[in-house]
Protein backbone atom coordinates (compact mmCIF):
# COMPACT_ATOMS: atom_id res chain seq x y z
CA UNK A 1 0.00 0.00 0.00
CA UNK A 2 2.70 2.46 -1.05
CA UNK A 3 0.99 5.70 -2.10
CA UNK A 4 3.55 8.21 -0.89
CA UNK A 5 5.27 9.21 -4.14
CA UNK A 6 5.58 8.30 -7.81
CA UNK A 7 9.32 8.92 -7.37
CA UNK A 8 9.47 5.51 -5.72
CA UNK A 9 8.12 3.67 -8.76
CA UNK A 10 10.47 1.30 -10.58
CA UNK A 11 11.94 2.08 -13.95
CA UNK A 12 9.83 0.74 -16.80
CA UNK A 13 11.07 -2.51 -18.30
CA UNK A 14 11.54 -0.81 -21.67
CA UNK A 15 13.83 1.74 -20.01
CA UNK A 16 15.98 -0.96 -18.43
CA UNK A 17 16.28 -2.70 -21.79
CA UNK A 18 17.28 0.58 -23.44
CA UNK A 19 19.95 1.17 -20.80
CA UNK A 20 21.38 -2.29 -21.43
CA UNK A 21 21.58 -1.55 -25.16
CA UNK A 22 23.24 1.80 -24.49
CA UNK A 23 25.83 0.04 -22.35
CA UNK A 24 27.11 -2.03 -25.27
CA UNK A 25 30.40 -0.55 -26.42
CA UNK A 26 31.76 2.97 -26.31
CA UNK A 27 30.04 6.16 -27.41
CA UNK A 28 30.92 9.82 -27.86
CA UNK A 29 30.76 11.69 -24.52
CA UNK A 30 29.05 14.89 -23.39
CA UNK A 31 25.89 14.64 -25.45
CA UNK A 32 27.59 14.02 -28.80
CA UNK A 33 26.26 10.46 -28.91
CA UNK A 34 23.71 9.04 -31.32
CA UNK A 35 20.97 8.38 -28.70
CA UNK A 36 21.05 12.06 -27.74
CA UNK A 37 20.81 13.11 -31.40
CA UNK A 38 17.82 10.82 -31.89
CA UNK A 39 16.11 12.17 -28.78
CA UNK A 40 16.61 15.75 -29.94
CA UNK A 41 14.86 14.89 -33.18
CA UNK A 42 12.07 13.09 -31.31
CA UNK A 43 11.36 16.13 -29.17
CA UNK A 44 11.15 18.35 -32.25
CA UNK A 45 8.67 15.93 -33.78
CA UNK A 46 6.68 15.71 -30.54
CA UNK A 47 6.37 19.49 -30.23
CA UNK A 48 5.84 20.04 -33.96
CA UNK A 49 8.76 22.48 -34.29
CA UNK A 50 12.49 22.73 -33.76
CA UNK A 51 13.34 22.89 -30.05
CA UNK A 52 16.44 23.12 -27.92
CA UNK A 53 17.02 20.01 -25.80
CA UNK A 54 19.18 19.83 -22.68
CA UNK A 55 19.14 16.54 -20.78
CA UNK A 56 19.69 16.38 -17.01
CA UNK A 57 19.02 13.80 -14.33
CA UNK A 58 16.86 15.60 -11.76
CA UNK A 59 13.79 17.78 -11.82
CA UNK A 60 15.48 20.20 -9.45
CA UNK A 61 18.28 20.70 -11.97
CA UNK A 62 15.80 21.18 -14.82
CA UNK A 63 13.79 23.78 -12.92
CA UNK A 64 16.79 25.62 -11.52
CA UNK A 65 18.61 25.80 -14.85
CA UNK A 66 15.50 26.89 -16.72
CA UNK A 67 14.63 29.60 -14.22
CA UNK A 68 18.22 30.82 -14.15
CA UNK A 69 18.07 31.20 -17.92
CA UNK A 70 15.11 33.61 -17.69
CA UNK A 71 15.55 35.31 -14.29
CA UNK A 72 18.45 37.62 -13.40
CA UNK A 73 19.81 37.81 -9.83
CA UNK A 74 17.88 41.05 -9.23
CA UNK A 75 14.66 39.57 -10.63
CA UNK A 76 11.62 37.71 -9.38
CA UNK A 77 10.16 34.45 -10.63
CA UNK A 78 6.43 34.35 -9.93
CA UNK A 79 4.50 31.14 -9.34
CA UNK A 80 1.67 29.75 -7.29
CA UNK A 81 2.22 30.22 -3.56
CA UNK A 82 2.35 26.45 -3.01
CA UNK A 83 4.32 25.52 -6.14
CA UNK A 84 7.08 22.94 -5.92
CA UNK A 85 9.76 25.52 -6.81
CA UNK A 86 8.58 27.64 -3.88
CA UNK A 87 9.01 25.04 -1.17
CA UNK A 88 10.62 21.79 -2.32
CA UNK A 89 13.84 22.64 -4.17
CA UNK A 90 15.92 23.57 -1.09
CA UNK A 91 16.64 26.99 -2.58
CA UNK A 92 18.10 25.59 -5.83
CA UNK A 93 16.31 28.11 -8.10
CA UNK A 94 17.55 30.96 -5.92
CA UNK A 95 21.06 29.47 -5.92
CA UNK A 96 21.24 28.91 -9.69
CA UNK A 97 19.84 32.38 -10.41
CA UNK A 98 22.46 33.84 -8.06
CA UNK A 99 19.83 35.24 -5.74
CA UNK A 100 16.59 35.89 -7.60
CA UNK A 101 13.45 35.94 -5.46
CA UNK A 102 10.61 33.43 -5.86
CA UNK A 103 7.27 35.21 -5.33
CA UNK A 104 4.00 33.38 -4.71
CA UNK A 105 0.51 34.12 -5.98
CA UNK A 106 -2.44 32.55 -4.11
CA UNK A 107 -5.00 30.59 -6.10
CA UNK A 108 -7.73 28.02 -5.54
CA UNK A 109 -6.95 24.32 -6.09
CA UNK A 110 -3.23 24.93 -6.46
CA UNK A 111 -3.63 26.97 -9.63
CA UNK A 112 -2.41 30.47 -10.33
CA UNK A 113 -4.80 32.52 -12.44
CA UNK A 114 -4.18 35.27 -14.96
CA UNK A 115 -6.21 37.66 -12.78
CA UNK A 116 -4.13 36.76 -9.73
CA UNK A 117 -0.93 37.40 -11.65
CA UNK A 118 -2.22 40.71 -12.99
CA UNK A 119 -3.18 41.82 -9.48
CA UNK A 120 0.31 41.06 -8.17
CA UNK A 121 2.01 42.83 -11.06
CA UNK A 122 -0.26 45.86 -10.62
CA UNK A 123 0.90 46.45 -7.06
CA UNK A 124 3.14 49.46 -6.52
CA UNK A 125 6.01 47.80 -4.68
CA UNK A 126 8.02 46.84 -7.80
CA UNK A 127 10.10 50.00 -7.45
CA UNK A 128 13.64 49.98 -8.89
CA UNK A 129 16.33 49.86 -7.73
CA UNK A 130 15.23 48.94 -4.20
CA UNK A 131 12.97 46.02 -5.15
CA UNK A 132 13.40 42.95 -7.32
CA UNK A 133 12.03 43.30 -10.83
CA UNK A 134 9.45 40.75 -12.08
CA UNK A 135 11.26 38.69 -14.69
CA UNK A 136 9.52 35.36 -15.15
CA UNK A 137 6.46 33.27 -14.44
CA UNK A 138 6.55 29.56 -13.64
CA UNK A 139 3.54 27.29 -14.09
CA UNK A 140 3.42 23.85 -12.43
CA UNK A 141 1.88 21.14 -14.63
CA UNK A 142 0.43 19.24 -12.83
CA UNK A 143 0.12 21.44 -9.74
CA UNK A 144 1.03 20.49 -6.20
CA UNK A 145 -2.71 19.93 -5.71
CA UNK A 146 -2.81 17.43 -8.55
CA UNK A 147 -4.86 19.80 -10.69
CA UNK A 148 -4.16 20.81 -14.29
CA UNK A 149 -3.88 23.89 -16.46
CA UNK A 150 -5.74 23.71 -19.77
CA UNK A 151 -4.27 25.47 -22.82
CA UNK A 152 -6.62 28.46 -22.50
CA UNK A 153 -5.57 28.99 -18.87
CA UNK A 154 -1.88 28.75 -19.78
CA UNK A 155 -2.38 31.20 -22.64
CA UNK A 156 -4.12 33.70 -20.37
CA UNK A 157 -1.30 33.56 -17.81
CA UNK A 158 1.33 33.84 -20.55
CA UNK A 159 -0.45 36.83 -22.07
CA UNK A 160 -0.54 38.60 -18.72
CA UNK A 161 3.13 37.79 -18.15
CA UNK A 162 4.32 38.96 -21.55
CA UNK A 163 2.36 42.20 -21.26
CA UNK A 164 4.87 43.03 -18.52
CA UNK A 165 7.89 41.62 -20.35
CA UNK A 166 8.08 38.42 -18.28
CA UNK A 167 9.33 35.10 -19.69
CA UNK A 168 7.27 31.95 -19.15
CA UNK A 169 8.50 28.63 -17.73
CA UNK A 170 6.56 25.44 -17.11
CA UNK A 171 7.57 22.97 -14.41
CA UNK A 172 6.41 19.78 -16.10
CA UNK A 173 7.49 17.22 -13.54
CA UNK A 174 4.15 15.52 -14.26
CA UNK A 175 3.72 16.90 -17.78
CA UNK A 176 2.97 13.38 -19.00
CA UNK A 177 0.04 13.04 -16.60
CA UNK A 178 -1.32 16.39 -17.77
CA UNK A 179 -1.00 15.48 -21.45
CA UNK A 180 -2.63 12.09 -20.90
CA UNK A 181 -5.49 13.56 -18.86
CA UNK A 182 -6.31 16.51 -21.11
CA UNK A 183 -5.69 14.84 -24.44
CA UNK A 184 -4.14 18.11 -25.59
CA UNK A 185 -1.14 18.01 -27.91
CA UNK A 186 2.19 18.79 -26.19
CA UNK A 187 2.51 21.85 -28.44
CA UNK A 188 -0.88 23.15 -27.25
CA UNK A 189 0.12 22.72 -23.62
CA UNK A 190 3.37 24.61 -24.15
CA UNK A 191 4.65 26.94 -26.86
CA UNK A 192 1.37 27.49 -28.69
CA UNK A 193 -0.02 28.73 -25.37
CA UNK A 194 2.97 30.97 -24.68
CA UNK A 195 5.39 28.73 -22.74
CA UNK A 196 9.01 29.53 -23.68
CA UNK A 197 10.94 26.94 -21.68
CA UNK A 198 9.80 23.63 -20.18
CA UNK A 199 11.12 21.24 -17.56
CA UNK A 200 9.91 17.91 -18.97
CA UNK A 201 9.84 15.19 -16.31
CA UNK A 202 10.37 11.49 -16.94
CA UNK A 203 11.66 10.15 -13.63
CA UNK A 204 8.20 9.97 -12.03
CA UNK A 205 6.90 8.24 -15.13
CA UNK A 206 9.12 5.25 -15.83
CA UNK A 207 12.67 6.60 -16.03
CA UNK A 208 15.49 5.85 -13.62
CA UNK A 209 16.92 9.39 -13.66
CA UNK A 210 16.05 11.44 -16.72
CA UNK A 211 14.63 14.93 -17.22
CA UNK A 212 14.86 17.44 -20.04
CA UNK A 213 14.89 21.20 -20.41
CA UNK A 214 13.04 21.97 -23.64
CA UNK A 215 13.54 25.44 -25.09
CA UNK A 216 10.99 26.96 -27.47
CA UNK A 217 12.29 30.55 -27.62
CA UNK A 218 15.40 30.69 -29.79
CA UNK A 219 17.13 33.36 -27.72
CA UNK A 220 16.93 31.21 -24.59
CA UNK A 221 19.15 28.50 -26.09
CA UNK A 222 22.22 30.73 -25.94
CA UNK A 223 24.67 29.68 -23.21
CA UNK A 224 22.29 27.16 -21.62
CA UNK A 225 24.80 24.44 -22.50
CA UNK A 226 27.46 26.34 -20.57
CA UNK A 227 25.07 27.01 -17.68
CA UNK A 228 24.32 23.29 -17.45
CA UNK A 229 28.03 22.41 -17.48
CA UNK A 230 28.91 25.10 -14.94
CA UNK A 231 26.13 23.84 -12.69
CA UNK A 232 27.54 20.32 -12.73
CA UNK A 233 24.69 18.76 -14.69
CA UNK A 234 26.36 17.79 -17.97
CA UNK A 235 26.79 14.03 -17.93
CA UNK A 236 29.86 12.71 -19.69
CA UNK A 237 27.93 9.51 -20.45
CA UNK A 238 24.82 11.34 -21.59
CA UNK A 239 23.70 8.41 -23.72
CA UNK A 240 22.34 6.79 -20.57
CA UNK A 241 19.92 9.68 -20.04
CA UNK A 242 19.01 9.80 -23.71
CA UNK A 243 18.37 6.06 -23.84
CA UNK A 244 15.76 6.35 -21.10
CA UNK A 245 13.99 9.26 -22.78
CA UNK A 246 14.07 7.54 -26.16
CA UNK A 247 12.46 4.41 -24.74
CA UNK A 248 9.66 6.46 -23.16
CA UNK A 249 8.96 8.67 -26.17
CA UNK A 250 9.02 5.75 -28.58
CA UNK A 251 5.51 4.64 -29.57
CA UNK A 252 3.92 6.93 -26.97
CA UNK A 253 4.99 4.86 -23.96
CA UNK A 254 5.27 8.03 -21.83
CA UNK A 255 1.56 8.73 -22.37
CA UNK A 256 0.52 5.11 -21.81
CA UNK A 257 2.30 4.95 -18.45
CA UNK A 258 0.88 8.31 -17.34
CA UNK A 259 -2.63 7.31 -18.37
CA UNK A 260 -2.30 4.16 -16.28
CA UNK A 261 -1.24 6.18 -13.23
CA UNK A 262 -4.12 8.61 -13.77
CA UNK A 263 -6.64 5.80 -14.10
CA UNK A 264 -5.44 4.13 -10.90
CA UNK A 265 -5.76 7.42 -9.02
CA UNK A 266 -9.24 7.87 -10.45
CA UNK A 267 -10.28 4.43 -9.23
CA UNK A 268 -8.83 5.15 -5.80
CA UNK A 269 -10.65 8.49 -5.60
CA UNK A 270 -13.94 6.92 -6.62
CA UNK A 271 -13.54 4.28 -3.94
CA UNK A 272 -12.81 6.87 -1.28
CA UNK A 273 -15.82 9.00 -2.19
CA UNK A 274 -18.10 5.97 -2.29
CA UNK A 275 -17.11 5.32 1.32
CA UNK A 276 -18.18 8.78 2.41
CA UNK A 277 -14.74 10.43 2.46
CA UNK A 278 -14.30 13.98 1.18
CA UNK A 279 -11.68 14.92 -1.41
CA UNK A 280 -9.86 18.23 -0.99
CA UNK A 281 -9.14 18.84 -4.68
CA UNK A 282 -10.58 17.71 -8.01
CA UNK A 283 -8.95 14.52 -9.27
CA UNK A 284 -7.36 15.45 -12.58
CA UNK A 285 -4.10 13.51 -12.76
CA UNK A 286 -2.45 10.92 -10.50
CA UNK A 287 -2.70 12.61 -7.09
CA UNK A 288 -5.53 12.21 -4.59
CA UNK A 289 -5.99 14.44 -1.55
CA UNK A 290 -8.47 13.09 0.96
CA UNK A 291 -9.67 14.03 4.44
CA UNK A 292 -9.31 11.07 6.78
CA UNK A 293 -10.93 10.71 10.19
CA UNK A 294 -8.20 10.14 12.79
CA UNK A 295 -9.31 6.55 13.41
CA UNK A 296 -9.08 5.74 9.70
CA UNK A 297 -5.69 7.44 9.38
CA UNK A 298 -4.38 5.51 12.38
CA UNK A 299 -5.73 2.22 11.05
CA UNK A 300 -4.16 2.75 7.63
CA UNK A 301 -0.80 3.59 9.16
CA UNK A 302 -0.99 0.56 11.42
CA UNK A 303 -1.76 -1.64 8.42
CA UNK A 304 1.38 -0.43 6.67
CA UNK A 305 -0.03 2.12 4.24
CA UNK A 306 2.53 4.74 3.21
CA UNK A 307 1.43 8.26 2.28
CA UNK A 308 2.11 11.86 3.25
CA UNK A 309 0.20 14.06 5.66
CA UNK A 310 -0.50 17.33 3.85
CA UNK A 311 -1.63 20.91 4.34
CA UNK A 312 -2.82 23.55 1.93
CA UNK A 313 -4.36 27.00 1.97
CA UNK A 314 -5.82 26.67 -1.53
CA UNK A 315 -8.68 24.29 -0.69
CA UNK A 316 -12.16 25.50 -1.61
CA UNK A 317 -14.42 26.00 1.45
CA UNK A 318 -16.87 23.36 0.23
CA UNK A 319 -14.04 20.81 0.21
CA UNK A 320 -12.68 21.60 3.65
CA UNK A 321 -12.32 18.80 6.16
CA UNK A 322 -14.73 17.90 8.89
CA UNK A 323 -13.70 18.62 12.47
CA UNK A 324 -10.56 16.72 13.37
CA UNK A 325 -10.03 15.26 9.89
CA UNK A 326 -6.47 14.86 8.63
CA UNK A 327 -5.48 15.68 5.07
CA UNK A 328 -3.58 12.92 3.26
CA UNK A 329 -1.83 12.99 -0.11
CA UNK A 330 -2.01 9.74 -2.06
CA UNK A 331 -0.08 9.33 -5.32
CA UNK A 332 -0.43 6.52 -7.83
CA UNK A 333 2.29 5.63 -10.31
CA UNK A 334 2.10 3.57 -13.48
CA UNK A 335 3.26 0.64 -11.35
CA UNK A 336 0.80 0.96 -8.45
CA UNK A 337 -0.87 -2.46 -8.21
CA UNK A 338 -4.66 -2.67 -8.18
CA UNK A 339 -4.20 -4.90 -5.15
CA UNK A 340 -2.68 -1.99 -3.22
CA UNK A 341 -5.71 0.19 -3.96
CA UNK A 342 -8.06 -2.62 -2.97
CA UNK A 343 -6.13 -3.27 0.25
CA UNK A 344 -6.16 0.45 1.11
CA UNK A 345 -9.91 0.66 0.62
CA UNK A 346 -10.34 -2.60 2.50
CA UNK A 347 -8.76 -1.10 5.63
CA UNK A 348 -11.19 1.82 5.41
CA UNK A 349 -14.09 -0.62 5.15
CA UNK A 350 -13.20 -1.93 8.58
CA UNK A 351 -13.31 1.54 10.20
CA UNK A 352 -16.29 3.83 10.82
CA UNK A 353 -15.94 6.84 8.51
CA UNK A 354 -18.68 9.11 9.86
Automatic annotation (TrEMBL):
**Assembly notes:** Homotetramer.
The UniProt keyword set, sorted, is: Lyase, Pyridoxal phosphate
Family label: Belongs to the threonine aldolase family.
Question: Which EC number(s) does UniProt give?
Answer: 4.1.2.48
**Coiled-coil residue windows:** none
Q: What is this protein called?
A: L-threonine aldolase
GO molecular function terms attached to this record: threonine aldolase activity
Please state the span of the N-terminal signal peptide per the UniProt entry.
none
Q: Which reaction does it catalyse?
A: L-threonine = acetaldehyde + glycine; L-allo-threonine = acetaldehyde + glycine
Pfam families found in the cross-reference section: Beta_elim_lyase (PF01212)
Q: What does this protein do?
A: Catalyzes the cleavage of L-allo-threonine and L-threonine to glycine and acetaldehyde.
Lyase is among the record's keywords: yes
InterPro entries xrefs: ArAA_b-elim_lyase/Thr_aldolase, Low_specificity_L-TA_bact, PyrdxlP-dep_Trfase, PyrdxlP-dep_Trfase_major, PyrdxlP-dep_Trfase_small
Top-level taxon in the UniProt lineage = Bacteria
Q: Which cofactor(s) are needed, names only?
A: pyridoxal 5'-phosphate
Q: Does the keyword Lyase apply?
A: yes
Q: A GO BP term, please?
A: L-threonine catabolic process
Any idea where the Aromatic amino acid beta-eliminating lyase/threonine aldolase domain is?
Answer: 3-291
Report the Gene3D superfamilies cross-referenced here.
Aspartate Aminotransferase, domain 1, Type I PLP-dependent aspartate aminotransferase-like (Major domain)
Amino acid sequence: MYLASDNAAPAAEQVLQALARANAGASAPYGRDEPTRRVEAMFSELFEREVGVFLVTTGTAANALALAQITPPWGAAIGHAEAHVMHDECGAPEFFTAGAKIVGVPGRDGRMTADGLKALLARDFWTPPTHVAPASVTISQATEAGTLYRPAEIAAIAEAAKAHGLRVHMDGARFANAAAATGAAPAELTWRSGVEILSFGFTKNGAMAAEAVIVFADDLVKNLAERRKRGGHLWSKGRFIAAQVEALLENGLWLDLAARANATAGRLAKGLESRGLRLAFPIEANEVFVWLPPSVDDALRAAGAAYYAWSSESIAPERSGRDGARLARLICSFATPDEDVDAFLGVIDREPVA
